[in-house]
Amino acid sequence: MSLASRDEDQTSQLTPAEVKALWQSSSFCILPWLHIYLPSSGAASPCCTNFEYVYGHTRDHGLQDLLDTPQANALRAEMISGRLPASCFRCQSAETQYGAISYRMDMNRRYADQQELVVGTTRDGKRAQRKMLYLDLRFSNLCNFACVMCDEHNSSSYAQNEAKAGRWQGPIVQSAIANWPQFWQFVDEQAPHLDEIYLCGGEPLIIEAQWDLLRRLIDRGHTHIRLRYNSNLSMLSWNRTPAFELWEKFRSVNLHASVDASGERAAWIRRGTKWPQVLENMQQAVQFSKSHPQFNFFVAPTVQILNALHLVDLHDELLRQEAAKPDHFAFNLLRTHTYFSIQNLPDADKARVARDWDGLKSRLGTSHEAQNMRTRLDEMRAFMLQAPTAPARAERAALLASLKRQMNFEMDDFFRVFPEARNWELTTSPDPTLA
Ligand code: SF4
Questions:
Q1: 218-256, pLDDT tens digit by residue?
Q2: Using H for helix, E for strand and C for coil, what is the string for 225-239?
Q3: Ligand 1, atom 4, residue with closest C-alpha
């Protein structure tokens, strides 16, 4: 029986025993109590995997108030009533279809000691305590790369290209924060509670506000906060200040490098990549991690049809170049555009990928990170082996059409860099019945 049906009074508050029971249920996620995802558009959401559900906009609310809008209350109320909101479908499908540890499960585990924060919430979703522990901040879409799987909201370079081609009429650079004095006041108030800030972009290391935030936290003694980054690693300093100089003052820094492939393949997938520079920065990060145990460096490839067959080559190459540690890879499965999905690989390629990934798993050690890599590889394998939602050839046609829209290239050039694609029966035919 749900908690709501036991008690019709929507203003009654959750007791510690009810919160404990709620925590064990598959409808509960702690994030709407302590976290906010703020993309460069300024439209705040529960998390980066539920970006469709909007709490409100920074134009209309301060950051602290965004977690207490009617929309945020409604999301929590639904969880309390025993239903996982429909907008949380990505967590649900990860759990039920691929047997994966969903973001929801991961966060409930991480913040298992925060039950007190949920106690006192009313059944209509109003929080009793207004503490923020975890922030996902994407100050701006400012980015020097235009990755082929990106969009105008996450990359100003992508927006610029689309605007030049007449396909984008919106702003080139977007800023998440509408009222900076109010934002800094929020940071000062919440910093004592904050556990982690995740900084993404755009490219966070070329966004001035990211550097201002670090300096402010250091100046006010809030270096207990764990920092986590997703960066394209095109640069590691700003106005002659090396990032390492500020990072070494924090309790913990996790730097995830969005590197999907090496050399020419990297430049095709993440347009703007200057591979020698990225490689050198990765080597510097590995060196820094050796002398700073609080600094963790991960290679974080976004896994999709264009790099799945080369993932193990990338792993091995980066080890040879001393640009990565063997068990410090954090794979992200691309799910936003279905035509980039690894489910669209032909069966023979899927079999090869599965073999390669099994081989990599067997070579990994016994560390916690290695175990995480194995789990992730298994989850991705299970996902890949499922049939795509649309006919695979039609999806591959959509992939080629998307690449052609973004870049002017000859097919021979494309096949030189992605020779496996010769077997993909690529066509720009829009015929959706292609199997
Ligand atoms: S259940 Fe999943 S999608 Fe929903 S808020 Fe939690 S982590 Fe995000």
A1: 999 999 999 999 999 999 999 889 999 999 999 999 999
A2: CEEEEEECCCCCEEC
A3: 88
